[in-house]
Amino acid sequence: MRFGFDNKDTFFVNCVLSRNKQGWFTDKSRGVSYSTATKDVRRMLEKVGIPGKSMTHKSFKSLGVTKTLDAGVVPEHVISQGRWRTTGMPNHYKVNSIQFKEDIASQVPV
Question: Structure pTM?
Fold first, then answer.
């Protein structure tokens, strides 16, 4: 994934770290693979006491969208941040409470 690619910024968000005699540096020409990024995030979560074995990128996307919408951010801004073209995507990722689901279910005619 590149950050700000539309603005000609070709740096990778998740770039490779390399080491030379002077120390660590970011190799901005190479991105971390999906499997390496997933493994590293899971390892980080385990270190802070969060079971990360079952976590995926969708887990974090759902959490971010849910917390953002619950905080009152308008869906248009969430759509923009998510770089989505359709207005239904925030609702696709939003995790709704059991109460919300029960309220919706109670509105279904029998």
Answer: 0.54
